[in-house]
Amino acid sequence: MKVIVFFVAIIILGAEWQCNGSEHEHEHGHSYQIFPLRMKTGPGGHYIPEVSCKSWRLGVEAHNVIDWRTIPQDCEGYIGNYMLGHQYRSDSKTVCREAYFYAKTINITAKTTWVFDVDETTLSNLPYFADHGFGVELYNATAFNEWVDLGEAPALPESLKLYNKLLSLGIKIVFITGRPLYQQAVTATNLKLAGYYKWEKLITKDTDKYNGKTAVTYKSTERQKLEENGYNIIGNIGDQWSDILGTNTGLRTFKLPDPMYYIS
């Protein structure tokens, strides 16, 4: 008898919850579909490709998926649509907006500095990656460097807007890029053509000095040099976790989205 009463009580509570839920939905003009919590993998289970690509991208941006060489083959269409669509711009806008709100709270001095990465941070290589599967293809240094040498990479609009706002606050700009020394001139020209008209320093990578070193080591060392020369790094923004990890990262770091490639 107690079991029957308990069972009936559950049914009544369930009905009441559904009624309240319906009223809530009606009140706010929204209807939400509730999905059961169950395992997405396991014996006989498989992912719907689009859903798994979204989860894979989240894992990449959260730095849970690391040391990968290419995006999953099935995700080429999803990543391409993301990078070329509204969401990528919206995500970038959110990051850059928060960076600016933070910068406005800082007491600016003559040596107050903000560090920008270049590729997929200030300049976009989407014209290149659109022809190379948005990261499905293995990285081809020869082909990519030929693209860089053209000096035609457009600016990321939200990053350019942040750059201009930081300059208006009196903050000095330093670019630190993994591009090699021999590409410094073309990078400088490309930055200016894209709208980045002034900066304190443009640091490119001495591949002999940093041969075998990770991007984290290289960028940490160069930031340390800046601080040893009196620069106060208040902000640091990049598309790779290796841009913002390590030492001398600055008072606050900001990660822009980039699910196309991974640099350790």
TrEMBL record:
Any transmembrane segments, and where? Answer: none
Q: Which domain of life is it from?
A: Eukaryota
A Pfam family that this protein carries is: Acid_phosphat_B
BP terms from Gene Ontology: defense response
Protein keywords:
Glycoprotein, Signal, Storage protein
Give the matching Gene3D superfamilies. HAD superfamily/HAD-like (3.40.50.1000)
- CDD domains from the xrefs? HAD_VSP (cd07535)
First and last residue of the signal peptide: 1-21
| GO MF, one annotated term | nutrient reservoir activity
**Role according to the record:** May function as somatic storage protein during early seedling development.
Family as reported in the entry's similarity comment: Belongs to the APS1/VSP family.
Name the UniProt record assigns to this protein: Acid phosphatase
Q: What gene codes for this chain?
A: LOC100778379
